[in-house]
Amino acid sequence: MNPDDLKQLLNHIDLLEKRITLLESRTLHDVKVQPILKVETESENMEFSDLNISISNPFETNFGEYGLAWLGNIVLFFAIAFLWKYFNDAGKPLISAIVGVISVAGFFTLSHYFRRNFSFLSFMFNLFGFVILFYIGLKLHYYNDKPLITNQVIATSIILLIIVGQLFFAFKNKSQILAGMAFIFASITAFASGSTHSFYLISLLTTVLVMYSFWKYNWWKALVIVLCIGFLTNVIWMLKNPVSLIKSPDDLTYQFAFVYYSIITAIYSLVVFRKPEKAFSSDLILSVIMLAGISYSAFLLILVVKHFPDNFVPFFTLISIYCITFSVILKLYSPWKYTPALFALFGFVAISVTVFGIYHLPDSFLLLTIQSIMVLAMALWYRSQIIAVMNTFLLISLILAYYKISGTLQAVNFSIPIVAFISARIINWQKKRMNIKTDFLRNMNLFILFFSLLYATYKGLPGQYIALSWLGITGMYFIFSIVLRSIKYRWLAMSNLMVTAFYLFLIDLAKIDLIFRILAFLVFAVISIIISTYYVKKLKKNSNDQYAEETVNPNSN
Q1: Quick one: pLDDT band at residue 57, thresholds 50, 70, 90?
Q2: Which of 201, 397, 455, 489 is the most exposed place for a label (fewest CB within 10 A)?
Q3: CA 45: distance to chain centroid?
């Protein structure tokens, strides 16, 4: 063997011996340590046994680590707030400010000191450090009878700098809680400012940052919380201001409020362009859109009732244009399939309000009824079952409201059955396209057709022609049943015939002239006989077909 190879082999053997020795020493050390740890654990259990406390209890450990950390920081915050108030009420605002600065520095120092061994406690000190910093900054001018800074612009700028610093650390450390607190502080600052433009500009900027955090870090909890708080602050701000727009020289105040809040809501609606990910579900996107829509609707209701009872048409016209346009864009580019339908529905509701504002009641019912066909056409293009369902129930609500309020306009009376008939045909024709699996919507429209057509002819024709017109309607239903090959129209024809029979015997016998009575009964008899012969032929055909089948296949049963 080569001497060099032998030397290399010996070196490898030496290294293996050293490794084995090291492993043996570590094993012995573990064996010696385990009994000690066991003794310590047993002694610790004995220490808490008299108190009936189990140190392995998750509730106790969670409360001890997290609950007490929260409680201690909250109590410490109130102590500092009371100390600040004591010096401020004593006429020493500078000393109170110094107390605040020292307290903030203390919180951040403790956070830094505990960062290695007590991570959650360190986080809590850091969080409440920013809370105290914002509280002191807010109290420099706002909600203070003896402010240290009297200039509102300077005071607001200082608060915004504090919030920007907090957001910087939140984005740097990817802390949703810290960012959410900063967004809440921004909403409070906007409300405290009192000015319309500063309130909405800060709110607008906050909304942009919230959407940025959602887009970049998936911070949807902060998004939902800020959306709710923003709505509450807007409502409180709107109710707080007692100025009437119509009589006020500052007429643009609430118009600006409408523009600002519309832009804010439009920014929230951009969540529908976010691609699906595991971090959030489609239900989350739907919740955000519904929450934003409900908040915006409530805001509009307060704005219109309080300040624009007679001048709301321009607002809803703009809303309808935006929603319909945005729904088309979503149909083309959004990955979430249900959102275009929601915006389209909201747009059509805005159109309905606009029509009502222009023509008022009951004249607006005609256009609102015809609009139902437009909505159904939109449902076809969107392939949306939601739009079709909502359109049917909105049509029913509209019809009931019309019959209760007026019911005397002949154009509306006859447009309702026409719209119901067209809607029933469209739904039956394209129910696969709209993913409609039952006949419920179609049956509802046929139900509307049946009663509304009876009502329209009853209100629109002289008494002596009512029975004749109903018999004509019966014949029309019967013809539809043959042409369209639908049993539903035969049932309509039979039901209409029965209603006509009751009307003839209970009302017409006592009211109409003899000649019209004779004519009505003759027409009734002819139609009854024709329908009877149709059923006889149909039954015979069915029985013959069944007999032929049994003859060909005698063992089929």
Answers
A1: low
A2: 397
A3: 52
**pLDDT value of position 43:** 40
CA distance 340 to 342: 5
Could you write out the three-class secondary structure of 156-210? HHHHHHHHHHHHHHHHHHCCHHHHHHHHHHHHHHHHHHCCHHHHHHHHHHHHHHH
| Helices then strands, each counted (H, E), the chain | 21, 0
Beta strands in 9-63 (DSSP E): none
Q: What is the pLDDT of residues 358-379, one digit of tens each?
A: 888 888 888 888 888 888 888 8
Of 493, 488, 462, 459, nearest in space to 476 by CA: 493
Contacts of 93 (CB under 8 A, 6+ apart): 87, 146, 147, 148
Q: What is the mean pLDDT of residues 36-55?
A: 39
* Token representation of residue 272: 């529908």
Spatial contact of 343 and 327, defined as CB atoms under 8 Å apart: yes
Name 306's Cβ contacts closer than 8 Å, sequence gap at least 6: 238, 239
Which pLDDT score is estimated for 547? Answer: 34
Give Cβ neighbours of residue 303 (< 8 Å, ≥ 6 apart): 238, 254, 257, 258, 315
Q: What is the pLDDT of residues 316-327, one digit of tens each?
A: 999 999 999 998
In the chain, the amino acid numbered 278 is K
Nearest to 198 by CA among 210, 206, 188, 190: 190
Closest to 451 measured CA to CA, from 396, 406, 409: 396
Q: What is the pLDDT of residues 459-483, one digit of tens each?
A: 888 877 788 888 888 889 888 888 8
SS3 at position 282:
helix
Q: Which two tokens stand for residue 179?
A: 């960012």
* Rounded distance between C-alpha atoms, residue 56 and residue 244, angstroms: 63
Q: CA 519 to CA 178: how far, in whole Å?
A: 85
Q: What angle do CA 436, 442, 448 make, to 5 degrees?
A: 150
pLDDT of residue 246: 38
Q: What is the DSSP letter of 276?
A: P
Residue 38 confidence (pLDDT): 42
Query: pLDDT (tens digit, 9 = 90+) per residue, 238-251?
Result: 777 644 333 443 44
Radius of gyration in angstroms for the set of CA atoms belonging to the chain, rounded to a whole number:
39
Cross-strand bridge partners of residue 280: 277
- Between the CA of residue 136 and those of 128, 141, 459, what are the distances in Å? 12, 9, 72
